[in-house]
């Protein structure tokens, strides 16, 4: 997304297309930002917080254990809090950051969607993904789209997309 020359997602967040995405989200339409998409959604103000360089300044690429915290988004409605899944991560700027009052708001409004089991990047509160208050905008650093076929390493990502399909009435 525009090379991330300033900050991850900063230039993309001002693209004209984002106005349409914001309008769609405001009507309750589902918006999913994965990895760089999550970075863009935070930079555009559609999600709280921001993403910065990983602790240790290293690019992290591996399968990652996660825990479902909130089931308020269409992608996670069929999960239960505490459910575990494994999804790939691949990022250098995936450390979620938010100030203490913002973190309290996320917790109070059940907006923390996923947490890392072992916090590979230094994210505040082990946060791997958050939603907006309505739950229809979800951002996450892990890649569910890369975990949809056993031949390529796992199928835990399928559950998120099936959740959205069910929410939309397709299954």
| Helical proportion, percent range | 10-25%
Structural class: alpha+beta
Amino-to-carboxy terminus distance: 33 Å
- Classified by CATH, the class is Alpha Beta
| Largest sheet descriptor | 6 strands, mixed
- Put simply, the count of helices is 4
Which outline best applies? globular
Residue-averaged pLDDT, rounded? 92
Count of individual beta strands? 8
Q: H/E element string?
A: HEHEEEEHEEEH
> Could you please say which CATH topology applies here?
Rossmann fold
Strand proportion, as a percent range, falls in 15-25%
**Roughly how many Å is the radius of gyration?**
15 Å
Uncertain parts: none
Task: Assign the CATH architecture.
Answer: 3-Layer(aba) Sandwich
- In spatial order, strands of the major sheet run 1-8-7-6-3-4
CATH H-level superfamily title? Class I glutamine amidotransferase (GATase) domain
Number of domains: 1
